[in-house]
Design a protein that fits this description.
alpha+beta, 4 helices, single chain, 7-stranded mixed beta sheet, Aminopeptidase
Length: 158
């Protein structure tokens, strides 16, 4: 099982992108938000490593300023490198290891979001098999409406 670590969302997420792009033949794009953009800074970031190698990371942020709902996004390093190199999304199913890693990361993000006062964690299926795997692993609610699927985890206070 990979090691899960909390990452400073303001200063250290950029280092994850630098690590992602390091072996690629393309430069890393700028990560700064455009002036006047509606970009919401991350509230939390968690990374997974195995034997020091970055496998994936998740980010959660407020859906809207002041909202108790948070949104989860993730990057799996090898998939993202393949996407960047190919210039399009790759079409292969998530492996059990990828799903287990993302579920562990999403669980850490959910715990942190709960502690920060969020009541829900939502995600959408940019990669449907991974999104569904996380939902199954966390026992999240799946909503299918008008051909669109989304997932939501209620963050109960203990």
């Amino acid at each position: 099982m990979p090691h899960i670590e909390a990452i400073d969302p303001i200063t250290d997420e950029k280092a994850l992108y630098e690590e992602l792009f390091a072996p690629l033949p393309v430069p890393m794009p700028g990560l700064d938000a455009e002036p006047g953009s509606q970009w919401t800074p991350p509230a939390g970031v968690f990374a997974a490593r195995e034997d020091g190698v970055l496998l994936a990371w998740v980010v959660y942020f407020a859906r809207d300023p002041g909202s108790p709902h948070s949104v989860l996004q993730w990057i799996t390093v090898e998939r993202e490198r393949q996407r960047i190199t190919a210039g399009h999304n790759t079409e292969h199913s998530g492996t059990p290891d990828e799903i287990d890693t993302l579920t562990a990361l999403a669980s850490a993000a959910a715990a942190a979001a709960r502690a920060a006062g969020y009541t829900h964690l939502h995600w959408h299926p940019a990669e449907p098999d991974l999104a569904e795997g996380i939902a199954l692993g966390l026992h999240a609610q799946t909503t299918r409406q008008n051909g669109y699927t989304s997932y939501s985890l209620t963050l109960h206070r203990n």
